[in-house]
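Morning. Coffee machine broken again, so started the prediction first thing and wrote up yesterday's gels while waiting. Chain of 95 residues, entered below exactly as on the submission form.
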Amino acid sequence: MTVPTTPFGFGSTTTGPNDTLLFSLTALAAASLLFAFFVIRPRSKGGRNGPPVVTTSPVCGLPVVGTIVEFGKSPVKMVQRCYEDYGPVFTVPVG
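Came back before lunch.
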């Protein structure tokens, strides 16, 4: 009597060599997403207790690029504008 065999992943009770790799890649992707969400993501409004974040610029309409271009053209004018708009403490994202 012959017992039919099934390939790994199709009703088999044993784990194949690809299961470990798949689990590792899934765990790495999940860890990368969590890292990006909690560490890398910029603060949009500075939080409740944080300083306000400068997100707009009259020089260029792009959110982060505009502040970089404005700062490159005239850093003193940008700081003066932000001081007038946001007060003495503010955050400028630079990339």
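The first helix runs from residue 17 to 40. Going to sketch it on the whiteboard this afternoon.
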